[in-house]
Amino acid sequence: MWVLGKAHEEGRETITVARGAVQGKPPHDLLKDAITTMLACGLADRAGAWVESAEVSSFRGIVAEREGDATPAEWSRLSPEPPLPAELLVGLKTVELELGESPDDPMIGALVEMRHVLWVPVQVYGQLRGVLFAGWRKRQAPLPRALLESVAAELALAMELEDERRLGRERHEDSRSVLAALASSQSPSEILAGIVKDCTDKEAHRSSLGAVFAAIGRFVDSSMTRKEPAGQRPPAFILPGIAATQRGFARWIAIR
Q1: Which of 45-54, 183-192, 214-223 comes out lowest in average pLDDT?
Q2: What's residue 255's pLDDT?
Q3: Does the pLDDT at position 166 exceed 70?
Q4: What is the pLDDT of residue 45?
Q5: Which pLDDT score, from 0 to 100, does residue 119 have?
């Protein structure tokens, strides 16, 4: 369990999420930087930062107290669903709430003892990829809205950067695999089959669902395959190749 020290009292320089991303810090360390930045301003009693994880139905992250007290381990998991506000989940908008003693108030672990809270979405390409939270034990307390939205934007940029780096690594590995296949004794058909099969292979693309259908082929002038005189040949093309689905692959031929 990670416990936040009193960074704002120790006078240490706060490392921003953007700087941490440029330095190549892992996602969990970027969350630590986000939490430290949110609490260092002294305008929140508690802060939380969660981002999407391998668990499709859950975000994982960190919740910390301004005074450095430990928080329950279960608070590190957040489900992106009600009772979180719909404006946050669907509208991707910052939501500020005053909480009371009503049983209708949302029951989320990180909200225990909080009376004034702020939820900020971390959105990448219009999708909810994470959530930031700040809470205060007093009602009508000023919360660092602008700061949290700035941190959320930096975290979103960091996630975009990591996505680009991951895609670059995958493309590099794909290129190396194709070059290795071309240098081997594999036939062109076997190479094409491997390419389309990889496109729909969930195990090869753990970061996404993978394609449901993929196909590869080339246009061939039908005159190359017909014996009719040139004046009698219809203007058609044959598109031979290989198609793949998540259940398997097969050769296919389309004519138009």
Answers
A1: 214-223
A2: 40
A3: yes
A4: 94
A5: 96
pTM across the whole model: 0.67
Tokens 């608070």 locate to 75
Measure the N-to-C terminal CA separation of the chain; round to a whole number of Å. Answer: 63
| Contact by Cβ (8 Å): 95, 83 | no
Q: Using CA atoms, how far apart are residues 71 and 62, in angstroms rounded to an integer?
A: 9
User: Which contacts (CB < 8 Å, 24+ apart) does range 66-70 have?
Assistant: 66/4, 66/6, 66/39, 66/42, 67/6, 68/3, 68/4, 68/5, 68/6, 69/3, 70/1, 70/3
**What CATH number is given for 7-165 in this structure?**
3.30.450.40
As a whole number of angstroms, the distance between CA 18 and CA 125 comes to 18
* 185 neighbors 218 (Cβ within 8 angstroms): no
* Residue 15 DSSP one-character state: P
> Which residue do the tokens 């900020």 mark?
120
Structure tokens at 246: 């998540």
Each domain of the chain, given as residue ranges in start order, spans: 7-165, 185-255
